[in-house]
Amino acid sequence: MKKLIGIISIALLITLTSFMSGCTSSNIFNYIVDDSYTDYIVMGTSADYPPYEWPMNVEGTQTLVGIDIQIGLAIAAELGMNLQVVNKGFDFLLDDLSKGKVDFVIAGMTPTDERAEIVDFSMVYYEAHQVILTTLENQDNYASIEDLNLNTIRIGAQMGSIQLDLAEDTFPDSQKVYLQAVPDLIMKLSQGLIEAVLLEQPVAEGYLTNVEGLAVLEFEIGEPDGGSAVAVEKGNTELLATINAVLEDLINSGALDIIVSEAILLNSGE
Ligand code: ARG
């Protein structure tokens, strides 16, 4: 695990571009961890979820950045491999993993019991609450769940996400709008085509910074202690043990805190 901390600090100091050899097709991104490594470990993600992962043009090259990409890089470094990231709709990720198309998934994914029947999860690396994103204009009209649980209200959530289930459970009387990509939900919210979007708090706060006219409602919904974990194919205990060791190291060394704050800063345009 010694080389890990070295690699992480290098990653943080030298910026993301040093790992990047660019994009080989529109949804595949290669990151060179070390020139001497010949093999790639393949990570699946859904890059529509800043600060977890999102697309960004870094010094003229289109790439993916964020907390989960940095974790993927740390895992690849520990394995002595370069990293290939496959970017897909969130609702495709577990299927890709079960079919062996990717080696692991990191996508701000919450380890639910239902998912744990299909894949195995690492420890939780980052905890976040669920919040409701709405517009500044509507903010004062929604003081409680009841104010939104009406058939005139349209609630948005991402397809395949826990927020979709949360929308079903919390707002049975509302209309639902389920889309594949989170930015499309935000666009509909801004255009007044839906009234609220369910998201993890750091994601909602990122959009607050980047999109004018939005607001996060005060009251919380769902499980307070939700979090994200890395998923591997069921039974891949060897890879899971390495991933857990990397996560433990990132958490205990404080490197993950730095990764999180850097990703939040990067997403806010600083
Ligand atoms: N945490 C939620 C879930 O596991 C949402 C994750 C969405 N992630 C993404 N990359 N779009 O269902």
Question: Would you mind describing this structure in some detail?
Answer:
By secondary structure, this protein is α/β, with parallel strands linked by helices. The chain folds into two domains: 10-127 and 226-268, Periplasmic binding protein-like II (D-Maltodextrin-Binding Protein, domain 2, 3-Layer(aba) Sandwich), CATH 3.40.190.10; 130-216, Periplasmic binding protein-like II (D-Maltodextrin-Binding Protein, domain 2, 3-Layer(aba) Sandwich), CATH 3.40.190. The chain is 38% helix and 27% strand. It has helices at 2-14, 67-79, 93-98, 113-116, 136-139, 145-148, 162-170, 182-190, 201-210, 237-253, 255-267, and strands at residues 20-25, 28-31, 40-45, 54-58, 61-65, 82-87, 104-105, 119-127, 130-135, 154-158, 175-179, 196-200, 214-216, 227-233. A seven-stranded mixed beta sheet has the order 1-2-6-3-7-14-8. A hairpin with a 2-residue loop joins strand 1 and strand 2 (28-31). Helix 1 (2-14) crosses helix 2, helix 1 packs parallel to helix 11 and helix 2 crosses helix 10 (237-253). The protein is globular. The model is unreliable at 9-18 (pLDDT under 50). Bound molecules: arginine.
